[in-house]
């Protein structure tokens, strides 16, 4: 076999070079397109328009992801039709089919997530009142109540917890139906009504100290039904979900505030409480911004509070609702310096009525005898004659609890002694009920008519006599000739 001569390749090279087609030289900044093709079919442009509209949908729109996927699928379908009918391009059609399938799968997933969740009828009221206002999704609520939660019942007279006997480590419950009574060593403290935690104070106070017993007795006043979580499993579940953990902290904190607020308050009848239950929930005003602030860092509480007090939140009712529950413990403890610093140059409304009872901070100060905070609030324009849901003014509460200094300050700021609450009781009725003889001497001089009758047709003198209390009138020491009681024997 002969070996090819290398020189033959050299002789062939010029021929190959001359047979290669020459590429025309292109001038700088000049297009290589000598002739543009005709405009594509309308389907092509409609497909691009659909993609453009999908990208322009604002992300603030609630259904923006679903609309985006629908428009992307529409665009892909138009491209498929265009490539198949008018271009006959297999690769363009295949890629758009792939895009169409991917977007369809994502759309199906989004629609599946938005499917209606069926919540048990017994739990629907709890969700609507407590969890839905905090933007807890139905699916998350179902997870919370479906795995380690049971619905239990108590018959009238049965005990949920016994003082110094029942452990607080076992459960956390929400009352779904009925009413329970809380007492301490036989003394009534308060009632628990539907859509309220039964043992929230114990849950909060024993988070760091296990093995303790209930310090109160909780008994069913009616046939009751309650939602019960295993405390250990609930705690583990909340640790894995930061948002839901903050929701529970908020709900439990507000429930404890309600219990403290209505503790041993004889001015609130069952009728008033039922009216209160029709009011919006305490947490219905909470914004997601405040929830995220709480979740972000607990060390920024003071900064957040100052921002809220100075109008940093979106909406006055929102920042008032948030700030008032931080100020209230300070007012109860008469920490007037701290309250004064927070209120300095703030936009907080000192007459803001909060909670289910719709009382102001001035009510709290008068009820607790916090004189310094009471004067501070009055100087900032608090209304001394503001009536809560039961018709009580701060003077009613001060008189009921015998807060002499608070009564004096309220009278200095023109508190009206003659105002009656929903039961027809005035401040002197409360003084007479509790036998506050020393305060009656001071208060009766401001009363225009001491013969005012309550809803039961009883005057303050009648009430004093029924309770076995001596008064300026029963002792014959009344010095005001205009008062008819001076001449009436008990």
TrEMBL record:
Task: Give an example GO biological process.
Answer: cell adhesion
Q: Which SMART domains match?
A: ANK (SM00248)
A cellular component term, taken from the record's GO annotations: lateral plasma membrane
Chain ranges of the POPDC1-3 domain? 40-265
ANK repeat residues? 357-389, 390-422, 423-455
**InterPro entries documented for this protein:** Ankyrin_rpt, Ankyrin_rpt-contain_sf, cNMP-bd_dom_sf, POPDC1-3, POPDC1-3_dom, RmlC-like_jellyroll
Record carries keyword ATP-binding = no
Protein topology in the membrane:
Multi-pass membrane protein
Q: What is its main location?
A: other
Q: Name one Pfam family in it.
A: Ank_2
Location in the cell: Cell junction, Tight junction; Lateral cell membrane; Membrane
Does the keyword Transmembrane feature in the UniProt annotation?
yes
Q: Which UniProt keywords apply?
A: ANK repeat, Cell adhesion, Cell junction, Cell membrane, Developmental protein, Glycoprotein, Membrane, Tight junction, Transmembrane, Transmembrane helix
Q: Which GO terms describe its molecular function?
A: cAMP binding
- PANTHER family per record: BLOOD VESSEL EPICARDIAL SUBSTANCE (PTHR12101:SF17), POPEYE DOMAIN CONTAINING PROTEIN (PTHR12101)
> Which family is it part of?
Belongs to the popeye family.
Query: What name appears for this protein in its UniProt entry?
Result: HECT domain and ankyrin repeat containing E3 ubiquitin protein ligase 1
């Amino acid at each position: 076999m002969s070996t090819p001569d290398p020189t033959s390749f050299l002789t062939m090279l010029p021929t190959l070079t001359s047979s290669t087609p020459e590429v025309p030289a292109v001038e700088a900044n000049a297009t290589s397109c000598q002739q543009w093709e005709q405009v594509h079919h309308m389907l092509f442009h409609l497909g691009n328009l659909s993609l453009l509209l999908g990208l322009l949908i604002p992300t603030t729109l609630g259904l923006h992801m679903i609309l985006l996927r629908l428009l992307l699928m529409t665009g892909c379908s138009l491209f498929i039709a265009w490539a198949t009918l008018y271009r006959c391009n297999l690769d363009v059609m295949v890629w758009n089919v792939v895009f169409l399938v991917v977007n369809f799968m994502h759309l199906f997933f989004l629609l599946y997530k938005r499917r209606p969740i069926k919540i048990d009828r017994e739990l629907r009221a709890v969700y609507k009142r407590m969890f839905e206002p905090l933007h807890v999704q139905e699916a998350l609520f179902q997870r919370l109540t479906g795995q380690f939660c049971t619905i239990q019942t108590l018959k009238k007279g049965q005990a949920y917890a016994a003082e110094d006997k029942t452990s607080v480590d076992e459960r956390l419950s929400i009352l779904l139906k009925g009413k329970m009574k809380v007492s301490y060593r036989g003394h009534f403290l308060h009632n628990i009504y539907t859509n309220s935690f039964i043992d929230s104070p114990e849950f909060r106070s024993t988070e760091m100290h296990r093995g303790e017993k209930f310090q109160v007795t909780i008994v069913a006043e009616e046939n009751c039904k309650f939602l019960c979580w295993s405390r250990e499993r609930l705690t583990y579940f909340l640790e894995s979900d930061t948002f839901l953990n903050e929701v529970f902290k908020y709900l439990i904190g507000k429930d404890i505030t309600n219990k403290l607020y209505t503790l041993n308050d004889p001015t609130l009848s069952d009728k008033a409480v039922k009216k209160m239950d029709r009011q919006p929930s305490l947490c219905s005003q909470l914004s997601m911004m405040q929830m995220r602030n709480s979740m972000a860092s607990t060390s920024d509480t003071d900064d957040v509070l100052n921002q809220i007090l100075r109008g940093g939140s979106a909406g006055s009712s929102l920042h008032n609702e948030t700030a008032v529950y931080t100020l209230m413990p300070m007012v109860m403890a008469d920490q007037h310096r701290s309250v004064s610093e927070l209120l300095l140059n703030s936009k907080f409304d000192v007459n803001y009525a909060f909670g289910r009872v719709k009382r102001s901070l001035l009510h709290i100060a008068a009820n607790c005898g916090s004189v310094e905070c009471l004067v501070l609030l009055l100087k900032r324009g608090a209304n001394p004659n503001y009536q809560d849901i039961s018709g009580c003014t701060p003077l009613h509460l001060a008189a009921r609890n015998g807060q002499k200094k608070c009564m004096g300050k309220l009278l200095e700021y023109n508190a009206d002694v003659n105002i009656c609450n929903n039961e027809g009781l005035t401040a002197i009725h409360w003084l007479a009920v509790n036998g506050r003889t020393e305060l009656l001497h001071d208060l009766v001089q401001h009363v225009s008519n001491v013969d005012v009758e309550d809803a039961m047709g009883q005057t303050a003198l009648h009430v004093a006599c029924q309770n076995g209390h001596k008064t300026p009138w029963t002792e014959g020491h009344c010095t005001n000739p205009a008062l008819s009681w001076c001449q009436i024997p008990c």
